[in-house]
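Study this:
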Amino acid sequence: MPKTRVQKEEIISELSDKLGRMKSAVFTSISGYTMDDANALRAKGREQGVEMLVVKKTLLMRALEARGFKVDPEQLHGSILTTMGFDDEVAAAKIVAGFLKAREGSAIAGGILEGQFVGSDIVKHLATLPSKQELFSKLVGSFNAPVSGIVNVLAGNLRNFVYVLNAVKEARV
């Protein structure tokens, strides 16, 4: 049953609100997308603050225009899976890239990053970046490295002093 004009306006309004709150979005041209695929992707997405939805392209384009995003309709062909990341900029790209590794006939059509439409090559590159948590842990490790280095140097001097004392002790016996 076709949707009424009011229902379509509600969908556009909801989608426009989500597009305003998101940090990044990925548009994927999908084929053969089953409910099992949808459920698995949604479960992965919930864990990482990512939402996936399939909306008619005309409604998606109107919501994008309402938010001021310039997207060429020619770049979005076929059925489009819209994946929006709300917590992390790379989470949506990582989930989609992981999903597409095992699928043929589906491809990343593009995405939105920092308010600009970006091509599929940039989205694929974004998927290879580490997540915020990984970057934070590397940063903490970098801060901790000089301190542990000093501790190891000081401990090494004490250790060597103990070895010398043991060597002197054994030489006297």
Summary: The CA atoms of residues 61 and 73 lie 7 Å apart.
